[in-house]
Amino acid sequence: MNSKLENLWEEVRELSLGTTPQIDRLHTPPTPLQFLRHYLSQNKPFILSASAATTLQWPATTLWTSTSYLLNTLSSSTVSLHLTPTGQADSLTPHPSNPDSLCFASAHVQSTSFSDAIDAIKASRKNDSSKGFVAYAQQQNDCFREEYGALARDCDSHIPWATEAIGGLPEAVNLWIGNDLSETSFHKDHYENLYAVVTGEKHFLLLPPTDVHRMYIREYPAAQYTYSEESEEFELKLENPERYVPWCSVNPYPLPKDKEKEISKFPFYYNGPKPFEVTLKAGEILYLPSMWFHHVRQTPDNRGLTIAVNYWYDMQFDIKYAYFNFLQSLSFCKPRLNDGDSFINENLSNGDKNHKEE
Asked: Nearest CA to 295 among 221, 356, 224?
């Protein structure tokens, strides 16, 4: 049966992405009809290159390179700042009471002035950290139109060719400001995502929905970080009442000392087709189709900041979604994994948390 899975992975790549599978790079924006026919309906990603003169004709592409402009424009704004010990939130970390097992940890979130948020992000960079945390300014609740409304005139309110093809405006528009330590673990979203980098770079690993069994989705107990400014320390507590979150178990960048162990635990990931690697530069847009798995790292600009805006459009819960749920529900692939000293069965359960760090 594993050979049939492998055939599926290869056929999806060949049929949707070509005989030498790669992510299309467009040098002119698609028309609504081109987007609908060639990408949206086929659940196929693409990059709209910065070389296209009409890619991002936003004031933001020049204005937001000035920290002074951002500070002046948002001088009276309060924003949500996410704090973690390592820069990884909505990710797996050792269980607070049993280090041999894992839990799903969410960031400590605090409201702060935009000025203090920028200071915290800059102070928590790699090799230059004076803090015991990594800071990331974002909130996945339409924060660009809410917390950062003073900047709204600097960007398009929607992506016109996507809006026309999809038949509606984006449900949410979000702003992300982070540094070189901010990292997003593998996950999928039930949205059609148009992701635009304004400054710095974003580095994506992408896998199609049919690779779901390579993600080793298991249910993990949910936990929350809390940060004390007095002690400058984090505490990780399990949620009460208890809650479990289905999450991808694979870390695509294990430490060298851990790599052999990771390969043995997750052979479908490491021995299958390589993820698509995409670097999104300033001025470029990635169309990330619904339910594609993605892992994200970033490289900041010369100020130490990466700034991006993404547009979440509702996906169609159609036959494609039914096929994916059926595939994910198949239980023929349940390898036993060594999690610490105990062996547990792999859980390939349905579902995923919709909104993630990026």
From this structure: 356
Nearest to 199 by CA among 180, 181, 186: 180
H runs (alpha helix) in 278-318: none
Helices (H), the chain: 2-17, 32-35, 60-63, 67-73, 114-123, 143-146, 160-166, 259-265, 267-271, 319-329
Q: Is the pLDDT of residue 349 over 50?
A: no
> 291 burial class (0-12, 13-18, 19+ CB within 10 angstroms)?
buried
- Residues 132, 100: contact at Cβ < 8 Å? no
pLDDT in tens, 87-108: 998 999 999 999 899 999 999 9
Distance, C-alpha 131 to centroid of its chain: 24
CA nearest 92: which of 350, 344, 284, 339? Answer: 339
Pick among 3.30.70.270, 2.60.120.10, 1.10.760.10, 3.30.70.100: CATH of 2-345: 2.60.120.10
Query: What pLDDT score was predicted for residue 2?
Result: 76
What are the structural domain ranges in the chain? 2-345
Backbone angles phi, psi at 13, to 5 degrees: -65, -45
- What single-letter DSSP state applies at residue 183? B
More confident residue, 137 or 341: 137
Mean pLDDT for the stretch of residues 261-272: 94
